[in-house]
Design goal:
Strand order of the largest sheet: 4-3-2-5-1-6-7-8
CATH superfamily of the largest domain: Mur-like, catalytic domain
Strand content: 15-25%
Structural class: alpha/beta
CATH class of the largest domain: Alpha Beta
Largest sheet: 8 strands, mixed
Radius of gyration: 21 Å
Length: 427
């Protein structure tokens, strides 16, 4: 067994411990390895949607500004290593193995042993310390207050991209309940940026910022509307103007310009915090950003797109993007989601776009059975099929799209991205 295989084997063991909210285990583990999170400047990012794209753009901007930049995100998309990045590049198998195999004995010495995500979080902070990163961008796994990343004492900046309904079984059934959890990343005296609708900032975020004397920043909605009116969207990228600066964004999706505008706003805050970020680094950073699984074109003839939309807000934007890019063409839909999602809404949101639906079950213990998902579309009069085997589902969906000469759009959990790509390569 190689050192990398040994590390993967240990992570499988930690996965069997399930998911447990709370900070006691991560606090103890980080203390045992020397509290590496206290040795670096950190930007902490929470929010329902847009975290991954926002972090990818911001990291690219910071890298282009000359800062050695670490990042931690979840879930892993291609393989576990890509949750950990230095200057936008995922770490090597050797580096990952060294991190995990060094930490594993310490984890096993604990009476209350850490979960998989807690081990990964600790490994990320240790990585940033070892690599002597100037700054790190750390994405919450779920919620905020009880997420293991929320061990950060004094972040350079806290960011809440938006608040929408998701993970309701853990975070609550209302926007305010969910916002209370996300507001947990706000720290005393440290600035916080809210990237959602500035006219509707959840009261929980306003109250938390006031209670902790944390300056709260939002973006000017009227300015955004004016700046993005002339956006040009194509499958090659997105062009838009912001404050007189023309940006050619490689990431697709109607939502990406707003993610980029959030980056612009945070850059201004970071400048006030003492970071030197030249305007040309902002432009080049955004224009050279890369991120998998967000309306990503994987193949042409037929066009195959994967988009990690999995909650109602994400599905809404995915539907907008499908209509924008493919006009009046019907699509072949392949979809797989977790059981805690409001999947019953998706048929109504996507129904008018679908020629045929292929439902699958992602390889995750929390996934929704494909039969249940297919039935939710069938009840709305949409021709639907269920596949327990994702590879078979991808082949059937691809063949249907090719025969009909229509796009294949894969939506749902990022947990199925790697398996989807591997299955597509066999088509």
């Amino acid at each position: 067994m190689t050192e990398y295989e040994k590390a993967l084997d240990y992570m499988k063991k930690t996965a069997e411990r399930g998911s447990k909210l709370g900070l006691s285990r991560i606090k103890e583990l980080l203390s045992l390895i020397g509290n590496p999170q206290d040795k670096i400047k950190i930007i902490h990012v929470s929010g329902t949607n847009g975290k991954g794209s926002f972090c990818a753009m911001l990291c690219s901007v910071l890298k282009n500004s000359g800062y050695k930049t670490g990042s931690f995100s979840s879930p892993a998309i291609t393989k576990v290593n890509d949750s950990f990045r230095i200057n936008c590049d995922e770490i090597s198998d050797k580096n990952f193995a060294s991190l995990i195999n060094d930490i594993a004995p310490i984890c096993e010495s604990m009476d209350d042993k850490p979960t998989e995500f807690e081990v990964l979080t600790a490994a990320a902070f240790e990585l940033f310390s070892r690599e002597k990163c100037d700054i790190a961008v750390v994405e919450c796994g779920m919620g905020g207050d009880l997420d293991s990343t929320n061990i950060i004492g004094s972040p350079l900046l806290s960011v809440i991209t938006n608040v929408r309904k998701d993970h309701c079984g853990f975070l609550g059934n209302t926007i305010e309940e969910i916002a209370m959890h996300k507001a947990g990343i706000i720290k005393h005296g440290r600035p916080v940026f809210f990237g959602g609708d500035s006219d509707n900032v959840p009261q929980a975020i306003i109250s938390a910022a006031k209670e902790k004397s944390a300056p709260l920043y939002t973006k000017d909605r009227s300015e955004i509307k004016c700046s993005l009116t002339e956006s040009v969207f194509s499958l090659s990228g997105t062009s838009f103007n912001y404050k007189g600066m023309k940006i050619d964004l490689p990431l697709l999706g109607t939502y990406q310009p707003e993610n980029a505008v959030n980056v612009f706003n945070c850059v201004e805050i970071l400048r006030d915090e003492g970071l030197e970020i030249p305007y040309n680094a902002v432009k080049s950073g955004i224009e050279n950003s890369k991120w998998h699984g967000r309306f990503e074109v994987l193949r042409k003839n037929p066009t195959v797109v994967f988009d990690g939309s999995h909650n109602p807000d994400g599905i809404k934007y995915a539907a907008e993007s499908i209509e924008l890019y493919f006009k009046n063409s019907k699509i072949t839909l392949l979809i797989g989601v977790m059981a805690d999602k409001e999947y019953e809404l998706y048929a109504d949101m996507l129904g008018g776009l679908i020629d045929r639906c292929f439902a699958v079950s992602p390889d995750n213990p929390r996934s929704l059975a494909s039969e249940i998902l297919a039935e939710s579309f069938a009840r709305k009069g949409i021709d639907s099929s269920a596949f327990d085997n994702l590879e078979n589902g991808v082949k059937a969906a691809y063949d249907h799209a090719k025969n009909k000469d229509i796009p294949l759009i894969a939506l749902g959990s990022l947990y199925m991205y790697r398996e989807f790509v591997e299955a597509l390569e066999k088509c």
